[in-house]
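LOG
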Amino acid sequence: MIRIDRLEYRPILSEICAELDPGQVVGLVGPNGAGKTTLLRAMAGLLRPTQGAVHVLGEPIHAREPRWRARRVAYLPQFLPEEIPFAVREFVEMGRYSHHPSGALDASDRRHVNEALDAMGLVQLQDVPLAHLSGGERQRAAIARCLAQGAPILLLDEPIASLDIHYQLDILQRLRSFAADGRLVVIAIHHLELAMSYCDRTLCLDGGRLAADGPPERVFTPELLQRVFRVDARPFRDPHTGALRLSFSAALPSIPE
């Protein structure tokens, strides 16, 4: 569904190669400044590569017009404007503007909006101004707008950042269900344990390069955690749930510049 072919965006990304398939939650992990946001923006067609290309459904996405991109890829940035003067439903309806730029929505558009509101548990809040929502509710509204686009690919930059654990788990569980329905879901995520639990695959970036790619249990080795994240940590199997967990012992000294 997405093919990243020797992608470079100098000086941030270098020689990124990967093929991402539908039906998966793919986690982008790495320390601050590793290039996660830049890679997501390149996959969304918002950045023109210095070299290489990102192909979406066989097409070089940066060469296509915005409406074409929006019908195939829904991108959620890490930060939204603080003041969005719309009710939840109005905000979610904006996801249909790539289909009807005039804003005159038809029955099919309203069905997509209704399904997105329902999928994110927002039907009861659809008439509430975004300014009155909690942080978790606001993030669910932002994801609902992405869903309303009807795009088969969701690219989400830190969708659970700054949320309490209830909303973190709620959103990740919903994202897994969207992948199970056949979408490709790519998320930048800092919480390594949640990446282990909810991602089918992880791409680990370090200094703009791909340091590891594979299932979380193969990526999060003690050696990689030490080299990339500068922590002494080891994965283990939770005896109660059977889930993989990480045991963090200590932060390691930073490597001198």
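LOG (cont.) second protein
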Amino acid sequence: MLQLRPNCECCDRDLPPESADARICSFECTFCTDCASSVLHGKCPNCGGELVARPRRPAAKLERFPASAERVLKAQGCAELREPA
């Protein structure tokens, strides 16, 4: 079952389970749409995998199968991955 992590690993933006702005790879590394597209260009910096839209769990199922509360954040963020202008 997906963890539905609560934040972007790059910028720490909140990504609640109902958010359509979350992107994940096959290892569930989680990023917001802004970081996934403008900084990471659709590629996970951790595993090299493709970043795709994270499925949303139906609200009725969240009580029994809650989203993760564990925040994962890259210590240095993803600024070093940004292409120079």
